[in-house]
Design goal:
This protein is of the alpha/beta class. It has 22 helices and 21 strands. The strands form nine sheets. A four-stranded mixed sheet has the order 12-13-11-14, covered by helices on one side.
């Protein structure tokens, strides 16, 4: 995490550059690039750490696995979180929204292996001048552990830049100064410190227990990452035999040197091995009796703390051989292959086993001796395993600056929200709760938002391992970020959702309509401040009363984390607003009925546009920011969430007049269309029949209906036997 950047509030007083002009031909093209640059320049989403915890909304963003590319499932779930973050920000909360990268695990190792054509061989020395091949071949090149780690850092950094670029393109309102990586020094330091504290309190302990184990990468794995596939494998923990019949495990990466073993050494202060010093043990397979000796170069923290001395595996072996005056058992010839004759002391069945290794290369001998050890039962698995979620389970502590930035920690922890998938509830969610409870005696967050999966047309989960994933950049380029976000946030929270480009097409059409209705509304009248008192016409008052109810519904939905319902209610009102209300008041807004009625329509249109833009802002951040900039100062994403009080006091007005007027206008249009007439062709008379409440509501807005339908005379008749309105054009 960039702590220095965290120390400041990087927002300017005016957190965005505004135009205050309406373009002649507004378009979606280029919006993402322009507003990304503006948001970054003005620090629109920068976290203000001067706020107290009660003013902060804190999100434990899932760090995506750095394994080459993000897929459409990431876009799906991360957009949900961003919609919530944007809503909370507009409600006046200071949103702590960091981003992490999970680059400390098997996916990163596999990515490096496949990308560079290398594999890690801890037995090799570091090559400071190593460069991976430009074109990796089918056979992976063995490299030292340090060289491999350097390649991990190198490729992870490149992937993370690509990830950040895509997240910015999608419009995530992350503070990009608040980033961390699970492999970086600070994360490793926090993970180690937390584990040591667990150990000191007796919460971490050794136990022999089954686990899922990856024999290629030699690490425990989560069940969520497991696929059933039969394959053989083993791990190099060798069982030496003691005189009392028990076994002593020695961990080694060089099992092929077992015939050259001349002693075992442990540190003289290592109390675990004090009783063994001066005794002898017998090597597996070759039954050579070797002493157990103390030596200062043995590392108690490395492996099991006791080492196998072979002549010669490395320089340390030479030191031990010389200082402890050990014998020599040479097995590797100058050609790099095992000698044809066994070293002294290997005879009988042991010599027959050695004959199977004679003449082999080091790598071939290593593979073969592992097979022999497995057959003999002298090879059980590493008993000292640290769970693979050891770092990931600390994401709230990592993001909030636990034990390193107490000021930030008090302002952001415990967090408000943890978004995550349901397949890792028992792992990531459970482990995070457990470790936060042990370390802080508290829950790590107040809410957990569980996202569903993306399903293919066969209603099966899209899976990277099965090749069923879609890279999102093509979708973002084809439909635009707002359209893709619309598809994502249309899905119910926690529900599995089918991938559907049709929804993206609808989202793009919605974004274009917002541009057009914004241009129409802002081209009317002047730029004087909006005064709700200017709204006087019944149809306008009915529109605002209906919009007030929509604002309340959307707010309640967001408060219950049901962003899709908020979008559904907002979108439903918007299309009715465009198709019905705008058409009903267009003539009056242009002044055909006089100044006061025109001012009422113009004010209502602007009030509605202002609220609708803000209601859509969490879902469609680019197009709403664009239209907002045509007439408002600052960023819409730092503007307040709409409230019904903005519409003034509508008084006693029947909102049904808007519904009735829209129904009559729809019938007039339908009949003109069936007659193949233009919608602006005048008609002499329209007869409207309906129940008395509907007719009464229509009487208050009859002038708007006549103007919108090009009707010279509109007459009404009451028929209480009817349940709805019937409108008929009379020739």
């Amino acid at each position: 995490m960039n702590m220095a950047a965290n120390q400041r509030n990087n927002r300017t007083e005016n957190p965005i550059s505004t135009r205050h002009e309406v373009p002649d031909k507004p378009a979606l093209d280029g919006l993402e690039e322009r507003w990304q640059e503006q948001w970054e320049r003005y620090g629109t989403y920068g976290f203000d750490r001067s706020k107290h915890r009660g003013e902060v909304y804190s999100i434990d963003t899932p760090p995506p696995t750095v394994s080459g590319s993000l897929h459409v499932g990431h876009v799906f779930s991360y957009t949900h979180t961003d919609a919530i973050a944007r809503y909370q920000r507009m409600c006046g909360r200071e949103v702590f929204y960091p981003m992490g990268w999970d680059d400390n695990g098997l996916p990163t190792e596999r990515r490096v292996q496949n990308f560079f054509g290398v594999r890690c061989d801890p037995s090799l020395p570091c090559d400071p001048h190593f460069q991976p091949p430009e074109r990796p071949g089918k056979v992976q090149i063995p490299v030292s552990r340090r060289n491999f780690i350097e390649l991990c850092h190198r490729l992870s950094a490149e992937d993370e830049r690509d990830f950040e670029k895509l997240w910015r393109r999608l419009g995530l309102s992350v503070d990009w100064s608040l980033t961390y990586a699970t492999i970086d020094e600070r994360s490793r330091r926090v993970a180690q410190r937390a584990f040591l504290r667990n150990l000191a309190r007796g919460e971490a302990y050794q136990a022999e227990a089954p686990c899922l184990w990856d024999v290629t990468f030699r690490t425990a794995v989560a069940q969520a990452e497991l696929e059933d596939r039969e394959c053989p494998g083993a791990y190099h923990a060798l069982a030496f035999h003691r005189s009392d019949g028990s076994e002593l495990l020695i961990e080694t990466t060089r099992p092929e040197l077992l015939p050259a073993c001349v002693a075992l050494v442990a540190h003289p202060d290592d109390e675990r091995y004090h009783p063994l010093f001066g005794s002898t043990v017998t090597t597996p397979l070759f039954a050579i009796e070797v002493p157990v000796l103390p030596h200062r170069l043995a590392d108690p923290a490395k492996g099991s703390g006791i080492a196998m001395v072979c002549t010669f595996g490395d320089i340390t072996d030479v030191t031990w051989w010389r200082e402890l005056r050990l014998p020599v058992r040479t097995i590797v010839g100058s050609d790099g292959r095992l000698l044809s004759s066994p070293p002294p002391g290997i005879a009988g069945p042991a010599a027959q086993r050695y004959a199977q290794l004679a003449g082999k290369t080091i790598a071939a001998a290593r593979r073969h001796i592992v097979e022999m050890l497995a057959e003999s039962g002298e090879l059980i698995g590493d008993p000292d395993i640290l769970d693979t979620w050891a770092t990931s389970s600390l994401t709230p502590l990592l993001a909030c600056g636990w034990d390193e930035d107490p000021d930030l920690f008090t302002r952001t922890y415990p967090m408000d929200l943890r978004p995550q998938a349901h397949d890792i509830i028992r792992t990531w969610l459970f482990y995070t709760v457990l470790r936060s409870h042990l370390e802080c005696n508290d829950l790590p967050w107040k809410h957990a938002a569980i996202s569903g999966w993306i399903l293919d047309p066969d209603r099966k989960k899209m899976s990277k391992s099965k090749g069923k994933v879609i890279v999102p950049i093509g979708l973002l380029e084809k439909y635009g970020s707002d359209a893709v976000r619309y598809w994502a946030t249309s899905a119910r929270p926690g529900a599995d959702t089918a991938f559907d480009e049709g929804q993206m097409k609808i989202g793009r059409r919605l974004a274009i309509k917002i541009l057009n209705v914004g241009r129409f509304t802002l081209a009317l009248g002047d730029n004087e401040p909006i005064d709700p008192a200017a709204v006087s016409e019944p149809l306008d008052l009915a529109l605002l009363a209906t919009l007030s109810a929509v604002v309340n519904h959307a707010t309640a939905a967001f408060e219950s984390y049901d962003y899709s319902r908020a979008l559904e209610r907002t979108e439903g009102f918007f299309w009715s607003f465009c198709d019905n209300y705008v058409e009903l008041v267009k003539g009056r807004a242009y002044g055909v009925s006089g100044d006061a009625p025109a001012r009422s329509a113009q004010t209502t249109l602007r009030l509605a546009l202002s609220s609708l833009l803000r209601l859509f802002a969490p879902f469609l951040p680019f197009v709403t920011e664009e239209v907002w900039s045509w007439w408002r100062d600052g960023s819409i994403h730092r503007s307040p969430w709409p409230r019904p009080t903005e519409f003034g006091a509508p008084g006693k007005i029947d909102p049904a007049c808007l519904e009735v007027a829209a129904a009559v206008l729809s019938e007039i249009r339908k009949q003109k269309t069936e007659a193949r007439q233009s919608l602006r062709v005048p008609v002499d008379r329209v007869l409207v029949t309906g129940p008395s409440p509907a007719v009464a509501a229509l009487q208050s807005v009859v002038h708007d209906v006549r103007e919108a339908g090009a009707v010279n005379e509109l007459s009404m008749e009451v028929d209480d036997s009817l349940k709805g309105i019937i409108a008929q054009i009379i020739d």
